[in-house]
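note to self — DONT lose this again. spent like an hour looking for the file last time. sequence + predicted structure for the chain T wanted, 544 res
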Amino acid sequence: MILFELDGTSYANMVAMGSKNLLSDIERVNALNVFPVPDGDTGTNMRMTIEGGVEEGLKTISTSIAEVSKLMSRAMTLNARGNSGVILSQYFRGISQGLDGLEKANVKQFGEALVSGTKRAYKVVQNPTEGTILTVVREAGEAALNDYKDGMNLTEYLNNYVKYAYESLARTPDLLPVLKKAGVVDSGAVGLILIFEGFIKYLNEEEIILSDDSKDEKKFGVDSKLINGFSIDFSLQLQNSKIDVTKFNLKDFNSILNGLGTNLITNLNDTLLDAHINTFHPGTVICQIRKFGEITKIKILNLDIDEIDDEIKSEEPIFAREHKKYATVAVANGAGLVQAFRDMGVDEVVSGGQTMNTSTQDFIKAFNSLNAENIFVFPNNSNIVMAAEQAAKNYDKANVYVVKTKTIAEGYSACQMINFDSDDIDTILNEFNEVISNVSTLEVTYSIRDTNINDLIIKKGDFICIYNGNLISASKDRISAIKQAFRAIPDFNDKSVLTVLCGIDVRIEETQEIEEIAKAFNSYIEVYPVEGNQDVYSYIIGIE
C-alpha cells in the first residue's frame, strides 16, 4: 500500500509487523554477544518490550496516531526489560512525543518523530555509548530526514532509513572496540533494523512466515531448564480439624510461605484464604498450606511456558501489609539467594537476573505489594538497573530510590548492611553506596562460542572468569580458571573476605578447594560459602 499519511490504526499494525519480523530472526539478535557468556537475551528483551505495546495498540479503537502511539509507548515502558528494552521503549516514547496532537502524520512529520525518538533514547542513558543502537537510530534518522523530498511516500522514506541504518551498523565495530574484538556488530541495532524492515513489509503487504521455533520461543522440552519457576493461585478453606481457626494468624502463615517463594499476596475473608505466590517448589507449598485447611481452588502455571493474562492479574487479592517508613526490594534468581535476601530483611524479592531480566512492571507490582513511604531497590544486575529506574520514575505511591547494585555480590553485601537508624535518606544511600564501592565481583560461567578476548584464546564450553566486567581467565577446568583469576587480580593480597555464592550446577563442598587456593595467595582472607542455586553462573564471588 502507498501511504502519504499514517493514522493510529495503520501505525499499530505497522509496529505489530515490526515485532513479528524481529521474532522471525530473534536467535540471530540473541547470538550477537560481545562477550562469550550464555546471556544472549537482547532480542528477547526487545521482543517482550515491543509486544507489550503492540497488544495495547491493536486493541484500541482510536484512529488518532497521537493517542495510539501514546498508549503503545506507555505499555512498552511498563514491559521494558534489560537495557535494550528500556532504550527501545524510550525511543518509541520519543516518537509518541513527536506525534503529539496529530490525528494523522504525513511522511515528514513521521520522520521528525523518529528523530524525536532518538533524542528521548539518548536522554534515558546516563552515559551514552557510541557504536550501539543509539548511534544507529541517530544517524539513520537524521540522514533519512535530510533526504526527504516533497511527494515521497512512507515506503520510500523507510527504505532510506533502513539503508542508512545498515551503513551505520557496519561502522559500529569501529566506534566500539569490544565489538571489533569479538567480530560482531551491535545486537540492539540489528533488532531495531529488523523492526523497521517489518514496517516496510507491512506497507508492501508481505507475509512473514515464522518457524516453529520462533512461534513458540517458550516451548519446554526434555533438555529445558526451569528458569522462572511456577505461579500458584489458590483458595484455602481453613478447617478446625487441622487448626484452631479462631486463633489463625495471617502473619505467621505469610512467614511460612515467604520462605518458599516470591511475590506473595494473601487475602483472608472470614475463614477463606485467597493467595498468590511464585515458587520453584509447588509441591512443598501445597503440603504446607494443607496443614491449615483444604484447597478449594488452585491454578499452577509454569512461568517458562505460560504468561499470566491480565484478567488473572486483575483478580489477584491485595495483602495489606503493615505500614513501614522504609522498605526494600531486591532482584534475585535461585531459591538459596531468594531466601538469603529474605533472611537479611529484604521485604520483597523479585525474580530476575542474567537472561531473565526483570521488567518495569515487575518492579511496580512489587512496590504495590508494599505499604511504605520510602522504597530502596537493589537491581543486582547491570542490565536491570535501567528498568528499575524507569519503574521508580513511573511510581507515585511512594518515594523510590534505586541503589545501583550491578551484581548479585554487590547486592548481597549491601543488603547485609540494611540499617535505617539514621532516618535520613541521603545518609542511608551513602552508606549503601560506600559498601558497594568496596565490593569487587568475580563471576564464573562457561563460554558459548570460540573467541579471542583480552589475548585469551577461548573455546566453546571453556570455563571463564569475569572480574568487574572484564574477562581475566579461561580453562577447560573450572577450578583452574578460578585459580588463574585469583592470580590475575592485582590487589588480591589486600582483600579480606570472599563471599562465594554457589550456583545450581555445583556442590557447596567444592568451595573448600576455592578456599585453599585463595589462602595460598592470601593467608588472611576469610571465605564464606552460600548456597545460592543461581542459574548461568557456577559461582558469583564477592571480594572485599
